[in-house]
């Protein structure tokens, strides 16, 4: 077992090599992760809000998951993150990373189609923070499903609201949809691929 920071450094190198096309990776194995700058921003945010219970939609190989666990451990001995992923291959890769970092016990992976998985989850649990980083075609549905699961004062963060451009039409509709809700406050941060930070106020 190595440190969580060693695993994160390895994944960051891999992501850089993939983005620069220095290595040729099959599409189903690509990391598709948030940027390191985005990860560190959320790490600091989670430490400050003392997040203990997190939900993640779209795990990929577990890069952001590891950052979140590391942040939660600053304030809690037994943090909990529930992460949803539909790809068995990505789940296998992520589990290997979690076990290498020695944090698998803090992470609950739920395999399956995200909408169906969310509908089956207990409705009485309240998350401090949710990251939405899954397929963009269904992102409005995901938001509506997770909003009741977030505590008042909790945060829903969404990646890719600005980039890549191929998602723009979905993300414009998504941001418009969020602004139709009276019980949230939301704003866009031009960090990484663009982050939408939504706070549940009522």
From TrEMBL:
Keyword S-adenosyl-L-methionine among UniProt keywords: yes
InterPro entries, alphabetized: Cation-dep_OMT, SAM-dependent_MTases_sf, SAM_O-MeTrfase
UniProt xrefs under Pfam families: Methyltransf_3
Keyword set includes DNA-binding: no
Gene Ontology terms: biological process: methylation
Keywords (A to Z) from UniProt: Methyltransferase, S-adenosyl-L-methionine, Transferase
A GO term, aspect molecular function: S-adenosylmethionine-dependent methyltransferase activity
Classification via PROSITE patterns: SAM_OMT_I
Protein name per UniProt: Methyltransferase
Taxonomic lineage of the native organism: Archaea, Nitrososphaerota, Candidatus Nitrosotenuis
């Amino acid at each position: 077992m190595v440190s969580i920071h060693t695993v994160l450094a390895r994944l960051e190198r891999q992501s850089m090599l993939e983005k620069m096309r220095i290595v040729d990776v099959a599409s189903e194995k690509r990391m598709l992760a948030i940027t390191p700058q985005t990860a560190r921003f959320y790490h600091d945010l989670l430490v400050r809000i003392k997040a203990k219970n997190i939900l993640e939609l779209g795990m990929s190989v577990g890069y952001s998951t590891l950052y979140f666990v590391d942040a939660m451990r600053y304030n809690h001995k037994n943090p909990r993150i529930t992460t949803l992923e539909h790809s068995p291959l990505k789940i296998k890769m992520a589990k290997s990373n979690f076990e290498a970092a020695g944090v698998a016990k803090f992470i609950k992976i739920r395999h399956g189609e995200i909408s169906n998985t969310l509908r089956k989850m207990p409705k009485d649990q309240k998350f401090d923070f949710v990251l939405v980083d899954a397929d963009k075609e269904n992102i409005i549905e995901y938001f509506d499903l997770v909003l009741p699961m977030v505590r008042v004062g909790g945060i829903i963060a969404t990646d890719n609201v600005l980039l890549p451009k191929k998602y723009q039409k979905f993300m414009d509709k998504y941001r418009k949809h969020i602004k139709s809700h009276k019980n949230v406050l939301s704003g866009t941060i031009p960090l990484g691929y663009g982050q939408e930070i939504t706070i549940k106020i009522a």
